[in-house]
Amino acid sequence: MEQQPPPITPEEMSHYTAGEYAQLGQPQQVKVLGIMHLVFGGIGVLTILWSLFIIIIGNPFLKFAGSTPEMQAQAKLQTDMIAYTIISTAFLILVTGLIITAGVLLVKGRKNALKWSNYYAWASIGTKIINMIVTIAYVLPMTTKMMEKSTASAGAMKGGFEAIMVGSMLVGFLIPLIYPVLTLILLNRPYVKTWFANQPV
Q: Whose CA is closest to 8, among 25, 183, 141, 130?
C-alpha cells in the first residue's frame, strides 16, 4: 500500500524541506482525483459521441415518437437550437480533453499534473458559466415559445413552466460545479503543491 503523507499544519510544514516532505508519500487525493478525472472523462467521451450523433443524424427518439404536434414542436426546437448544440459540444470536447490529460498525469504522479488539472477546473467552471448565460438568454425563450405553440393551456402554464425551467437550470448549473471547485481546493493545498514540485515531469 502506498504511504500517505500525514495531515500537518502550515507550522509543521515549515519544519520540512521540499525534498523531505516529498519523501513522506503521495497525497491520497492525487490518485483518487486522477481516477475520478478519468471516469468523468469517459462519461464526457460518451456524451460527445451522442451529441455528434444528434448533430449529424438527429435525435432518433423524436423520429420514433410519431408525428404528434408536440413531437413536431420538439423536433423544430432541436433544429433551431443546432448552433447552441454545436457550441456546447465544442466546449465539452475541450473540457473532456483537459480532464483526461490531467487524469492520466495525476495517476502517473507527474509534476505538470497540477497545472493540467487546474486548466481543466477553470475551463470547466468558465464553460458552465457561459452555458448558463446562453441557456437563460437563448434556450429558455425558445423552449417557452415551443410550449406555447404545442400546448393549448400554455398561457396559464407559462409562468410556472418558466419558474421550473430556471430552477432546474440553476440546480443543473450548481451541482456540476462542485467537482471542479473541489479539484481546485484539494490539489492546490500547500503540501500537495510541494509534493508535485518534487515529482518528475
A: 25
